[in-house]
Design brief:
CATH architecture: 2-Layer Sandwich
Number of domains: 1
Protein name: RNA-binding protein
GO molecular function: RNA binding
Organism: Steroidobacter denitrificans
Keywords: RNA-binding
Strand order of the largest sheet: 2-3-1-6
Largest sheet: 4 strands, antiparallel
Oligomer: single chain
Helix content: 10-25%
InterPro entries: Nucleotide-bd_a/b_plait_sf, RBD_domain_sf, RRM2_NsCP33-like, RRM_dom, SLIRP/GR-RBP-like
Distance between the termini: 48 Å
CATH superfamily: RRM (RNA recognition motif) domain
């Protein structure tokens, strides 16, 4: 299974529209569009999970393709490095 990053989505895009777009290139296991925590509005990116071979085809075909007047950025998702959290200094 491969996780695909989909960026520069039009704010009008919903999970069904993204699923339909990617299903043209194989089996879509899941679609997750990211919303802003504070406003609940779409942030313009999301993730699609597909079998590895289908994902490679979808990335090749859809990167740069126009959706709602915006060129999509489609590539394999990179694992987000896990930080230690906190970040502040302790003062005694």
């Amino acid at each position: 299974m491969s996780k695909i990053y989909v960026g520069n989505l039009p704010f009008s895009a919903d999970e069904n529209a993204v699923r339909e777009l990617f299903q043209q290139h194989g089996t879509v296991e899941s679609v997750a569009l990211i919303n802003d925590r504070e406003t609940g509005r779409p942030r313009g990116f999301g993730f699609v999970e597909m079998p590895r071979a289908d994902a490679a085809r979808a990335i090749q075909a859809l990167n740069g393709q126009d959706m709602g007047g915006r060129p999509l950025r489609v590539n394999e998702a990179q694992d987000k490095p896990r930080g230690g959290g906190g970040g502040g200094q302790r003062r005694w």
